[in-house]
Amino acid sequence: MQLTEEFAATTQYFPVRKALDDDTIHNFKPAKKITLDDLNQNVLKSEYAVRGSIPRRAEELEFELLNNDSSDSLAFENIVHANIGNPQQLDQKPLTFSRQVISILQYPELLNQRNILVSTGIFKSDAMERAETLLCHIGGSVGAYSSSQGVYGIRETVANYITARDNGETASPDDIFLTEGASKAASYLLSLLCKDKNTGVLIPIPQYPLYTATITLCDAKMLPYYLNEESGWSTNTNEIEKVVLDAIADNVKPSVMVVINPGNPTGSVLSKDDIIHIINIGAKYGIVLIADEVYQENIFDGEFHSMKKVLRSLQKQYPGKYDAVQLASLHSTSKGVSGECGQRGGYMELVGFKDEIRQAILKLASISLCSVITGQALVDLMVNPPKKGDESYELDNFERKNIHETLKERAEKLYNLFCQLKGVECQKPQGAMYLFPKLHFPQTLITEAINQNMSPDEFYCHALLEATGICTVPGSGFGQKEGTYHLRTTFLAPGNQWTEKWKLFHEEFFSKYQ
Amino acid sequence: MQLTEEFAATTQYFPVRKALDDDTIHNFKPAKKITLDDLNQNVLKSEYAVRGSIPRRAEELEFELLNNDSSDSLAFENIVHANIGNPQQLDQKPLTFSRQVISILQYPELLNQRNILVSTGIFKSDAMERAETLLCHIGGSVGAYSSSQGVYGIRETVANYITARDNGETASPDDIFLTEGASKAASYLLSLLCKDKNTGVLIPIPQYPLYTATITLCDAKMLPYYLNEESGWSTNTNEIEKVVLDAIADNVKPSVMVVINPGNPTGSVLSKDDIIHIINIGAKYGIVLIADEVYQENIFDGEFHSMKKVLRSLQKQYPGKYDAVQLASLHSTSKGVSGECGQRGGYMELVGFKDEIRQAILKLASISLCSVITGQALVDLMVNPPKKGDESYELDNFERKNIHETLKERAEKLYNLFCQLKGVECQKPQGAMYLFPKLHFPQTLITEAINQNMSPDEFYCHALLEATGICTVPGSGFGQKEGTYHLRTTFLAPGNQWTEKWKLFHEEFFSKYQ
User: Fold this and answer.
1) Which residue has the higher pLDDT, A121 or A66?
2) Residue to test with chain A: of B51, B67, B340, most A Cβ within 10 A
3) CA atoms of A454 and A463, how far apart (whole Å)
């Protein structure tokens, strides 16, 4: 009733429409503008640190550097964007073959100029052929909507790739959804699986904040499980099971478990044993597993085990035991060696779901019509690169190896820096694009941070940005054990200058508060 | 407590992890798979007719035609996709200049081959120059994430376009968000503005089902206002105000009003007077206006008035009265003459919102990282085509005019067909890409439909598809006055064959039930 009274006080009923020449139609008391109170409070509660306050400040500084004379007062000449895994913003070049194909898809008229373009070496003929095949799958134009699940021919290519990756365990195009990056897949799954406030979603801590943000938007309950920093950010299954049982005791239904492998922000790679234990939890409690496997190509140390492959081997070994496991595996063109973040390509594979669930996801996807077609084509190119003997093979293979090696070198270089720094402890990078060092702050620094109304890790990242232009994200944005402090940084930036600057900053900053 | 007991019955606590060589870790009772009951019920409730049961059946038939011998038994050789405004799926060609630019953006190496490519006439030099400018705005690669609001330089171009469109009323790049089509913009706005179950969203009936689907997902309350079919689907402001007041009396807060102009599915164009009355409602009740103006270029009859231009003129004429009006205007590269549905480009302009609201939208956008960069570039190309004197101007202008004329001719041709058909009544098309004829069904047909568990319009569309391959959408998917029946069809398909087939089907079908 309150609402009615409030409105009754500010408005009076008379028809807005009479005749246009009648000035009374403009004779009303205007209402006020909406404020934050009028909004969906879950949006206000959600946080996405990767684009949070430090990155926003970095954007301001970058704007100053580009446009303003006052930039003379800044201690640096450019921003080092280490807050986000965005390889092509730094110096990573796109793969030539992929870009040739997409370029032709955008302007198929080039196919009619094949003689000139191939003889001059501007395009390779196998790029022309791949573009023709893809155009045929797509139906002639990247400017038309595809089916909401994605272009069928591309889903077939993805299914073949997964089958080969998982030692012949068959994947079906019907279970593949082409999505705008992995973010969109995560959003579909959580929107669907979060039934109400009592739905629990297990997330690793630290985690990629897309998950906390999306769970908050869905108004579901976060069930954090902590990774073991000391043993390379491995999972602790006993602890996970305790989280599940505590949730049940609290009348929260643990429905979904997010697993990020290789880890973001941790850079770890899960062992096969860890994955088996996670699948056991899924099987025993009927918890849907979301395997965020977008960094599956970014492995420097150890081996990537896809959750599906491990599941299939368990299903063979223990007949009947694992038949009800439901798994969604996410992949993306943004990471790996393609690094095509801005092109918004990705896929998810659904494993073990009832068909009615697949249909519900399809309906959700249909409301967004379809994912961008060139992003879908890039998925095809990611999983089906030129093969030995193909004209583009050598260059493509060289570029892929080179990117992989470069990433590995940069990871090691930054890791070595952190090993040298006083008060910094870092796990050895095994995969992904990030390091997540632990910072042992002096007490005076902690006190000063609190005085300035910041968490100590935020205080450090803030000072690092203002002193050097290096933009990182405080560990608090990803979650960390109470009383510990971290930061996430990508290792993607080239050169030694930025790591040198970081070293100097760190030593000065720590000695100031020692 | 029920949940706890249920789980206690099916699971027993023992640590899943002991040692891997211990078979007890696989010794648990597996849980069951999830079912529809376990899902977010709003997803199940949501409906998106444009990709609903008739289009799904059309997909099956198309699959049969392509892959199956049983297609011999079908009465047609291809599906006519008239269910969705997807011009390039039919025979509309993309604009050459736009595609040349995007092709270069995808493979900037082409810029180094300028001499060959321009001298052979493969690319125009102004396409090369535009690509260089855009690459500079974008920061060098379409494969990098942009800021979540979109590339600044492109937002500047959009702001300049709006300023010119609205007779010099200034637009600012800070108020422009680049989005994946208009669907994503609608989704951001409704997710944010739908606070709770008591939030009311006014939607026209008939409406584009993206809105009903999204409102259902947001768990808000739909407040339908009916358009006047008899007077060319105009708005009735008295009725709208009654809807607002009835909602308030019901303790529902009318917070948002969706206006689709030119109309989808109606094909109508709102008069300036209608728009003034709508703005009055927004001003008087503090209702946020969402102006879906994606068909602003698709005008065949009458004139398009942007809601912002009308608002600005009211603000000048009645100082202080309209200052609190809050408006979001949506546009897209999917429609107009570019028709680039699969490229997922679009923008929204925010007018009159407090900065805190803009920040909240930005946070929501940041969780999706950014919209696809080539889609952003296409927005630039849509609003800033080649100018008189530019090398590409003549061809581009010819193509644009040609597409516009073709669409107009097809609209008229289909309208003329409907005028001839018995029991069909259709408003004259003024804009957009659709006709929404009213079907006066014989009573025997209505009875037969009900016997077959279908609404009569669904029954008709179903029979039309099975007999001719023409895929349309029943009016019930868009909303219609009780006891009336319609269907939505695009007029995009080329040739006369399909309209002839429709005519024959209609006459036969109606005479069967006469």
Assistant:
1) A121
2) B51
3) 11
Binned at pLDDT 50, 70 and 90, residue B10 comes out as very low
End-to-end Cα spacing for chain B:
61
Cβ neighbours of residue B472 under 8 Å, at least 6 residues apart? B54, B82, B83, B461, B464, B465, B487, B488, B489
How far apart CA A380 and CA A105 sit, in angstroms, is: 13
Same domain, B70 and B198: no
On the question of pLDDT at A7 being above 80, the answer is no
* Cβ distance of A29 and B288 shorter than 8 Å: no
> The complex's ipTM?
0.94
The CATH number that applies at residue B488 is 3.90.1150.10
Residue B352 shares a structural domain with residue B281: yes
* Residues 381-410 (A) with a CB less than 8 A from some CB of B: none
Domain boundary at B351, B369, B387, which?
B369
- What pLDDT, in 10s, does the model give residues B421-458? 999 999 999 999 999 999 999 999 999 999 999 999 99
A122 within domain boundaries: no
pLDDT digits over B82-132, tens only? 999 999 998 899 999 999 999 999 999 999 999 999 999 999 999 999 999
- pLDDT grade for A190, boundaries at 50, 70 and 90: very high
**Same domain, residue pair A75 and A179:** no
Q: Are residues A366 and A414 both part of a single domain? A: no
The domain total for chain A is: 3
pLDDT digits (tens, 9 = 90+) for B232-255: 999 988 999 999 999 999 999 999
Q: Are A440 and A493 found together in one domain?
A: yes
Over residues A274-303, the pLDDT tens digits come to: 999 999 999 999 999 999 999 999 999 889
Residue B160 domain flag: no
Mutate to test the interface with B, among A149, A187, A368 (most CBs of B within 10 A): A368
Containing structural domain, residue A443: 48-90+401-512
- Of A68-82, B85-99, B102-116, B309-323, least confident by mean pLDDT is A68-82
CATH number of the domain that residue A251 is part of: 3.40.640.10
**Test mutation, A343, A361, A382, A471, chain B, max B CBs within 10 A:** A343
Minimum distance, in Å, between the CA of residue B441 and any CA atom of chain A: 30
Q: Does B469 touch chain A (CB under 8 A)?
A: no
Residues in chain A closer than 8 A to B320 (CB atoms)? 30
CA dihedral (A46, A49, A53, A59) in degrees, to 10, reads -120
**Per-residue tokens: B188:** 């951001």
Contacts of A353 in chain B (CB under 8 A): 33-34
Portion 40-79 of A in contact with B at CB < 8 A: 40-41, 43-44, 46, 48, 50-51, 59
B98-131 b/e with 16+ CB inside 10 Å = b? bbbbbbbbbbbebbebeebbbeeebbbebbbbbb
Which residue from B minimizes the CA distance to A198?
B3
B177 and B68 within one domain: no
Cross-strand pairs, B178: B347
Contact B122 A120 (CB under 8 A): no
Whether residue B434 sits in one domain with residue B296: no
Six-digit token string for A108: 């198929």
Question: Residues A338, A434: one domain?
Answer: no
Interface of A with B in 148-167 (CB under 8 A): 148
Contact A338, B142 (CB under 8 A): no
Contact A188/B at CB under 8 A: no
Residues of A in contact with B180 (CB under 8 A): 180, 344, 368, 372
Of B369, B387, B410, which marks where a domain is finished? B369
Structural contact between residues A166 and A312, judged by C-beta atoms closer than 8 angstroms = yes
Alpha-carbon distances, residue B366 vs A26, A394, B362 (angstroms): 39, 38, 6
In chain A, what percentage of residues exceed pLDDT 90?
A: 88
In a domain, B183, yes or no: yes
- For residue B129, being part of any structural domain is answered with no
